[in-house]
Amino acid sequence: MCGIAGYCGACGVADTTEKERAGRLEALLAGIVHRGPDDAGITCAHNVAIGMRRLSIIDLAGGHQPMLSGDGRYALVFNGEIYNFRELRSELAEAGYSFATDSDSEVLLKGYMAWGRGVLDRLDGMFAFAVHDRHAGTVFLARDHLGIKPLYYIHLGGVFAFCSEPAPLLELPQVRRRLDHDALAAFLSFKYVPAPDTFIKDIKKLAAGHTLEYSPRGDMLRTERYWQLQGREGSSDAGELAERLTRAVDSQMVSDVPLGVFLSGGIDSGLLTWAAAGQGGEHFTGGYTVAFDETGRKKGLCAGGSFDESRLAALSAAHLGVPLSSTTLASPAQATLDDWIRRFQEPFANTSIPANFLLCQWVARHVKVALNGSGADELFGGYDRYYAVHPPAALRALHCAAPLLRRVADMLPVGGGKNSLVHRARRYLAGCALAPAQKHAGSIRLFTDTQLAAIAPGVVPATFVQDAFAGAPQGSLLYKATWTDMQTMLPDDYLTLVDRTSMAASLEVRVPFLARDFVQYAFSLPPAAKIAGWKKKTALRALAAKHLPEDIARQPKMGFESPVGRWFRDGLGEALCRQLAQSPLQNIISVRGVQALAQSHSAGQVDAAKPLLALYTLVRWMDMYRVEL
Predict the structure, then answer these.
(1) What is the DSSP track for 544-596?
(2) Which is deepest, 70, 115, 150, 623, by most CB within 10 Å?
(3) C-alpha to C-alpha distance for 44 and 40, rounded to whole angstroms
(4) Are 72 and 134 contacting, i.e. CB atoms less than 8 angstroms apart?
(5) Please, where are the H alpha helices in 215-259?
(6) Paired residues of 37 in beta bridges
(7) Does the pLDDT of residue 299 top 50, yes or no?
(8) What pLDDT is recorded for position 128?
(9) CA dist list (Å): 583 to 180, 342, 401, 627
(10) Is the pLDDT of residue 11 over 70?
(11) What is the CA radius of gyration of the chain?
C-alpha cells in the first residue's frame, strides 16, 4: 500500500527538463507522505518521472519502488495489494521468470512483462499502478476493477501527471483552479462526482476498471475499459455464501504486519470477524471499535447513544472468542470539521466521514491493516433506498394513496434522530408515481427538485444515475439499482471515503466483500437472497443467524454517522450562510435559499443534514484551495 505519482513531459516541450520533472515529482510525493511514511523512491528517464511513497505491508525489506525490470525496459510504481500474487508468482516461475523479492510488486511487474495488459484479467486485488515502458516510450496506468484505489491525473499543455490524491496536482503550474460546473451540478444532485470528472476542470480521475496509456512522443492519451460487472441474475446459489465469504476473507489476510477488523454492531463486520477468526494467522489481532462520548445527550438503542455500537461489537467479539480493542473518543466535533475538509481534499456530504477519520486514527495506533465491510449493502440490498424499486407488499398497497399520504407527511416534523421515519416516508412517497430509473435516482438525491430550485436556480439537475440505471444489464429492478450503485456511488463516494480517511492515518483498509470473484457471485444471487418483504440482506442475515449473537443478526442497519444534523441546529447553519455571503458561490447558490433551508432544519421541519453539510464543505473547500468559478 502506498501513494504513487508521475510527471511526464511531451517530447520537445519546453520547461520539462529532467531536473524540472524530478522536482515536480518530488513535490507531488511530498503531498502524499501520509499514504506511505515507510519508504520513498523515484526514477527518471526519457521525459518521464515516476515515484512512490510506501506503506510496508508485504515483504517489508524487499518491496522498494519504483521497481525496474532486469533489462531496464520497464519501471513500475504500484499502490495497493495483489492478494493472489503467490499463485501468479508460481505461474510466472513455471514460465521461466525469476524473482529477487517476495513482494507482490515484483509479481505485478513481471506479470505485465509476460502478459501485457492481459495481466489485469488475472489480478485479484485493489490497485492503481503505472508502468513506464522505456523502449516503447509509453506510460500505462490501470485502476482496479471496482475502484477501491484512486488515481487522479492531468493532461495539459504537453504535460501529463498523475497522483493518488487530487490536492498535490493543484500545485502544478499548468493547473487552473477552476470549478467544473458540470461536476457541481452532479454533486448538488447526488452528493458525489462521477468519474472521470472532478470538482476541478483540469483534473480527472481514472474510472474503475479502466486503463490509460500516455505517449510522450506524440502527447497522446487514451483510456479504455478493461472490466465490467456482469452476471446473470439468479445464477448463484445462496447456499455457497459461507464458503465464498470465507475464501474472500482468507485471501485478504495476507500480511507481514498486524491485521485487525473494524467491528461495529452490524452483521457485515460481524461476519468478517467470524471468517477472520476461523482463518486465524499469526498477524490477526482481533476486532477494533470505538464509542463516541455523547454525555448529556439522549441515549439511543446502543449504549453510549445513537452513534455508538460498542456494546453490540462487544457481544460479537465475545461470541466469536476474538480479542476486542475499544476506546471512547470525544464525539466528532464541529470545531474540527474544517480540518477534515482539508484532509479529504474534496467537498463531501457523507455524514460518516468525520467519525471515520477518528476511527482510523485510533485503529492505526494498533495495526497497519484492517478489514472493512464496504460493498455488502450494495451487493445484498442493504439500503432502505432499494425499497423504491423493490418495495414490500405493504408499501406497494399505499401507492394509490401516495399523493394524500405525501401531504400528510409534509406536515409532520422530522425530529432530530438520524433515521427519521417521516424523512424516509417523504422520500419514498415522492417517487411512487415515477418511472423506475427516476425512482432510484430520487431515492439518493441530495436535494429534492424543489430544494435545488430554491438554493441553486440556475443549476440543471444531473442525470447520470438515471442514465446508468437505463444502461444496466437485463434483470429485476433491484438488480438494476444495485448495478447502478456499484458503477457510480460505490467507487466515487463510499470507496473514496474509505481510502481518504484510512490513508490519512497511514492505515491500509481491505474490503473482502469486494473481492472480484465474490462480487461476481453475490451480484448474481436471486432477488430473494437480498430483499424479502421488509427484510434486507436476507442471505447475509441467514448466515449471521448461524454464527453471530441473535441481537446482531436481528439488528437493523445503523450506519456509522456523525451528529451533523445537531451541528447545523447548534450554529453551523448560521456560519454557513455568513461564509456563503462572502464566497463567489453566492453567484450560483442563493444565500436566501440556504438560510430558509437551514431554518427549516433547525425547526425540525426537514432533515437537511446532508444537504447542509454538502454546501458547507463546498464553500470551505473553495476557500481553502483557492478555487475560482
Answers:
(1) HHHHS-HHHHHPPP------HHHHIIIIIHHHHHHHHHTSGGGGTS-HHHHHH
(2) 150
(3) 14
(4) yes
(5) 241-251
(6) 54
(7) no
(8) 97
(9) 16, 17, 44, 10
(10) no
(11) 24
For 463, the grid coordinates are 442525470
Tracing cell 463546498 back to the chain, one arrives at 618
Q: Do 537 and 384 contact (CB within 8 A), yes or no?
A: no
Give me the DSSP letters along 493-554.
Answer: IIHHHHHHHHHTTT-EEE-GGG-HHHHHHHHTS-GGGTEETTEESHHHHHHHHHHS-HHHHH
C-alpha triplet 70, 256, 132: angle, nearest 5°: 30
Predicted structure pTM score = 0.93
Of 337, 322, 316, 325, the C-alpha closest to 363 is: 325
* Rounded Cα–Cα distance for residues 109 and 106 (Å): 5
Q: What is the mean pLDDT of residues 475-485?
A: 96
What is the mean pLDDT of the segment spanning 37-47?
85
Give the tens place of pLDDT for each residue, 239-294. Answer: 999 999 999 999 999 888 889 999 988 899 999 999 999 877 778 999 999 887 75
Nearest to 616 by CA among 416, 351, 414, 424: 351
| H or E stretch covering 431 | none
Length of the chain: 629
Contact 628, 178 (CB under 8 A): yes
Distance CA(279)–CA(246), nearest Å, equals 8
Cell reading at 305? 447513544
